[in-house]
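#lab-general

N.A. 3:47 PM
ok so I finally got the sequence cleaned up, no stray characters, all 156 residues accounted for. can someone with queue access submit it? mine expired

B.Y. 3:52 PM
send it over

N.A. 3:53 PM
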Amino acid sequence: MARVDYFNDPNAPKANSIVPSVTAVALNEAGEILLIHRTDNDLWALPGGGIDIGESASAAAVREAKEETGFDVEVAGLIGIYTDPAHVMAYDDGEVRQQFSLCFRARITGGELRTSGESKDVAFVHPSGLDELSIHPSMRMRIDHGLGSRTEPYIG
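B.Y. 4:20 PM
back already:
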């Protein structure tokens, strides 16, 4: 399903749903961040997705990382809560979703790199190479918070 992200856009459609979701910031030993090239909006992003009924947020982060990247991860902490109503995602089925995402710090514990139906590419990217990628501003904020030295989770 195709998706268009809007951020602080006065012409954005109005949200008609909200779905709790998760993302995970996972680094390899070289300090490179695990990213996916999404199939739905053609942007680079952290692995993540919606929380299923009966699933905890941290379990969703583990599941989504595995599904989208092939890597097993372990949640190590909360980076932040991202709920900006000025960020909406419009899907081609008419759903317009308001952002609601918990971003976790994660450790890679196993697995091997592979793509999925949601990720046309998976890569470890050095922080110095992030500006060369097409990344949504809200996702870039999560990445920057995950790479930074915040002592408290972001609440916003």
